[in-house]
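User: structure tokens for NAD(P)-dependent dehydrogenase, short-chain alcohol dehydrogenase family, please.
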Amino acid sequence: MEHKKEMLQAQEPKKDYRQEDESRAMSPEPKIEYSEYKAADKLKGKTAIVTGADSGIGAAVAIAFAKEGANVALVDCDDKEDAEKVKNRIKEISGQVLWFTGDVGDEDFVKNVVSQTVAEYGSIDILVNNAAEQHTRKSISEVTSEQLTRTFQTNIFSMFYFVKAVLPHFNPYAKIINTTSVTAYKGSANLLDYASTKGAIVAFTRSLSQNQEMIDKKIRVNAVAPGPIWTPLIPATTPNDDKETFGESVPMKRAGEAYELAPAYVYLASDDSSYVTGQVIHVNGGSIVNG
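Assistant: Done. Predicted tokens:
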């Protein structure tokens, strides 16, 4: 049944955690959709919440989920133009989208996202914790307490908030998918706080998958660790000299595109991965991390 209702959370995001999104000025333009993708109703009738869905990996995942038949509830920070594009594309695919704008590091906002999603769709089957921010700093002395707190709030606290909020509303055999990073395994000299949160996400994923409550409810918990992916976060947070060679250090000698990540999330969200939990899928252009 066609459903075109959209819901906007009227909360003004805190200015101290906004990062400029330069997707309109990026060259080449980042790609969030693969035109030759063959959907197979792998998520038909399922309801998914995806955070950080206005651009990049989150947008690519949201579009792929919609193609696979999922009802999607999407969360972004404040990039209205990119968000509108993703919203309209999903409407073209399925007509079904809820949209929330606000701070994922605010537990009250998270609770509201979940309660409105349940009010609209009845329950939840998939949670994709993808929202993140990063700030390049050459010295640890440049990492302020405010930045440290903000990065952890967005990147890892939000995952605790969302899991806690969705748990009472999860259907049996629900899935949680967390976005970590190759930096959790290789480190990053100039992204100390960001890399630290990504390491925490790996530990969170593995630990949560072993939690007896998750096991009893047959909830699977996994993660995806992207390598260098060409998304709006990169030009917004990367020094100009590094942008020119971004991605060339991996064996495939190029940055990945967001749409190249989406099938990994579809796999983990579907029954195709029914014997997979506590694992991390590495989509990184060939870097061997042994993790």
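User: Anything notable?

Assistant: The mean pLDDT is 88.
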